[in-house]
Write a sequence for this structure.
């Protein structure tokens, strides 16, 4: 089966939501959101993807300046989608690689990479820390663009260039990341860049505890953990 067909089948499965358990999951997810229970109660599911070689560069958007972000860029990065500037300061402070796209002097998009072997920690309370094998493995996360630029292709271009640098300049051998399972545009973008799906993670967090389920290759494992447990979920786990 081709990757395109796998992604299409996954997207179709998510759209149909035919099983009672899936319908119950979506009902609970929507209920937690509409009742304002988050962050005390979180219900999430994501698709884990990976790529092991740099993507091909496409033409176009030659006026988009792509570079590594610095401390001076923090206010502009935060303004892309109204984030807390402290989040980007923390990312730069732990030496994560933050790339930005600049057009006519304005920062309009960004994406980030965390290098192993230190686990990626930002999803600790929601899912778990994501384990990485060594310094050649990277975690890709938080690609975003200004609302008015999201259909222009700037994120795809930024992602292409940044991924090539991760592989060719920083010794990357594997880049992994997660996509919320209903984010179909992101699934399609990752498919086009050459990512493959390696599994799915579901997490339900309550006050002080969380239930985490990992599915891959027709098998599943699950854990009941403290909300801020040190347990790191290896994406390659099957």
């Amino acid at each position: 089966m081709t990757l395109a067909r796998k992604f299409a089948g996954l997207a179709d499965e998510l759209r149909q939501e035919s099983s009672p358990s899936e319908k119950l999951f979506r009902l609970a997810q929507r209920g937690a959101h509409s009742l304002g229970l988050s962050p005390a109660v979180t219900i999430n599911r994501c698709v884990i993807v990976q790529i092991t070689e740099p993507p091909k560069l496409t033409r176009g958007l030659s006026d988009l300046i792509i570079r590594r972000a610095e401390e001076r860029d923090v206010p502009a990065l935060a303004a892309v989608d109204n984030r807390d500037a402290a989040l980007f300061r923390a990312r730069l402070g732990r030496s994560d690689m933050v790339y930005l796209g600049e057009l006519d002097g304005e920062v309009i998009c960004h994406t980030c990479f965390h290098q192993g072997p230190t686990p990626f920690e930002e999803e600790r309370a929601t899912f778990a820390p994501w384990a990485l094998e060594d310094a050649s493995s990277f975690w890709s996360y938080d690609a975003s663009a200004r609302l008015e630029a999201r259909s222009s292709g700037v994120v795809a271009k930024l992602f292409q260039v940044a991924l090539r640098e991760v592989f060719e300049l920083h010794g990357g051998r594997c880049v992994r990341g997660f996509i919320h399972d209903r984010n179909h545009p992101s699934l399609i973008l990752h498919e086009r860049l050459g990512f493959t799906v390696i599994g799915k993670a579901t997490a339900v967090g309550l006050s002080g505890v969380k239930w985490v389920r990992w599915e891959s290759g027709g098998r599943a494992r699950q854990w009941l953990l403290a909300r801020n447990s040190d347990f790191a979920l290896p994406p390659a786990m099957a």
Summary: Residues 153 and 161 are 13 Å apart (CA to CA). Residues 3-226 form a domain with the Aminopeptidase fold (CATH 3.40.630.30).
